[in-house]
Each structure stands twice: as structure tokens, then as C-alpha cells.
């Protein structure tokens, strides 16, 4: 059955990671600074397996850049690497080196940039994937929210738990 589901997923343009999770919990960050920019909203999916958790992050290259001047951000979907959980904190790394960066937000139905269809690669993709460094982050769980902590920027973003249907309805378009 899994073999057929994987083949179907490949044909439809979304991809399953190594194994199907037992459950998935979505969190949404609404970009509000300095004005509301729905295209720049970010989403985190925590995918729970029997003995492990993995993380999928839909975001913008602003996570890797100190300041954006004169260009639009690139959009990506990345898997968290080097996940370490201690209490209510999950530490992980996002690696953008060699990954695809797109001109528009990646739909949450796509779990890998390798299988995104119909969205052009960003004209700045080479710059983004060549010069931006990997980043370490922490997720702190407080109630039904997650806080994405970026120690390098000394910043904290609040992600609110959302259902998959709510996340799919977001107007993340340019």
C-alpha cells in the first residue's frame, strides 16, 4: 500500500519523506512587520513518528539574511537537520546550500523543493544557495504556540498551531 501511495504522491507533485508519520502538527507565523505580507508567512510542520520527530519548514530567505535591500525574498521548503530535543525545546539546523529557492511561496503540499512544479526558481537562487550559511534555530513550545528562536539575530517569532485545512487556505501568494 505504501508503495502505491508513494508513487501516487510522486505523480501529484508532493513527496513523502522516508516514512509516513503517525501524526503531523502545523504551526503558522503571520508576517506582520512592518505591514502584513501574507506571501511571507512561514509554516512549520512537526511530523511525529513512533520513536522520532522530523520537521518541515516553509519560509523565506530572510531567515538566512541579515537585511534585505532592493530585492524580493526567495521561498523554500526545507527539512530540519540535526534535531535535538531537550524538554520543551527542539534545536535544529536549516541548510539552504545547494537547495532550490523559488520566486513564490511553496505550497504546503510540497514536502521537498525537488518536487515543486509550476513555480519558477528565483533569479537570485544562485546567490541564496551559494553565499547564505546554514542556520541553527530552536523551537520553544509554550502552550499551543511555538517560538522560533534565532540565536544569531537574538529574535523570537510566535507560530500558532493551525489545522492543515487552515494552513492550505492561507493566501501565501505574491
Spell out the blueprint of helices and strands.
Layout: H1 2-12, E1 23-29, E2 42-48, E3 53-60, E4 75-79, E5 81-86, E6 89-94, H2 125-131, E7 135-142, E8 145-150, E9 155-162, H3 164-169
Antiparallel strand pairs: 1-2, 1-9, 2-3, 3-4, 5-6, 6-7, 7-8, 8-9
Helix content: 10-25%
Q: In angstroms, what is the radius of gyration?
A: 16 Å
SSE-based structural type: mainly beta
Give the DSSP E fraction (strand runs of 2 or more residues). Answer: 35-45%
Form type: globular
What is the number of E strands? 9
- Low-pLDDT runs of 5+ residues are 1-17
Number of helices: 3
Write the H/E string, N to C: HEEEEEEHEEEH
The strand line-up of the biggest sheet is 4-3-2-1-9-8-7-6-5
Compute the average pLDDT. 82
- End-to-end Cα distance: 38 Å
Largest sheet: 9 strands, antiparallel
Q: How would you describe this protein?
A:
- It is a single chain.
- By secondary structure, this protein is mainly beta.
- 14% of the residues lie in helices and 35% in strands.
- The protein is built from 3 helices and 9 strands.
- The protein has helices at residues 2-12, 125-131, 164-169; strands at residues 23-29, 42-48, 53-60, 75-79, 81-86, 89-94, 135-142, 145-150, 155-162.
- A 9-stranded antiparallel β-sheet has the order 4-3-2-1-9-8-7-6-5.
- Strand 2 and strand 3 form a beta hairpin.
- Mean pLDDT is 82; it is low at 1-17.
Briefly, what is this?
14% of the residues lie in helices and 35% in strands. With 174 residues, it is mainly β.
Task: Fill in the keyword field for this structure.
174 residues, mainly beta, 9 strands, disordered N terminus
Amino acid at each position: 500500500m505504501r508503495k502505491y501511495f508513494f508513487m501516487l504522491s510522486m505523480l501529484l507533485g508532493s513527496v513523502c519523506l522516508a516514512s509516513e508519520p503517525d501524526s503531523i502538527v502545523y504551526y503558522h507565523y503571520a508576517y506582520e512587520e512592518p505591514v502584513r505580507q501574507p506571501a511571507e508567512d512561514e509554516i512549520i510542520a512537526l511530523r511525529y513518528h513512533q520513536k522520532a520527530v522530523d520537521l518541515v519548514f516553509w519560509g523565506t530567505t530572510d531567515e538566512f539574511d541579515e537585511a534585505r535591500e532592493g530585492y524580493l525574498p526567495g521561498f523554500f521548503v526545507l527539512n530540519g537537520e540535526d534535531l535535538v530535543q531537550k524538554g520543551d525545546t527542539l534545536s535544529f539546523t536549516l541548510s539552504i546550500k545547494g537547495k532550490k529557492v523559488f520566486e513564490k511561496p511553496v505550497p504546503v503540499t510540497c514536502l521537498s523543493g525537488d518536487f515543486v512544479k509550476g513555480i519558477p526558481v528565483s533569479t537570485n537562487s544562485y546567490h541564496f544557495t551559494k553565499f547564505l550559511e546554514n542556520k541553527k534555530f530552536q523551537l520553544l513550545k509554550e502552550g499551543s504556540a511555538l517560538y522560533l528562536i534565532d540565536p544569531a539575530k537574538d529574535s523570537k517569532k510566535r507560530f500558532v498551531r493551525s489545522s492543515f485545512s487552515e494552513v492550505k487556505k492561507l493566501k501565501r501568494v505574491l
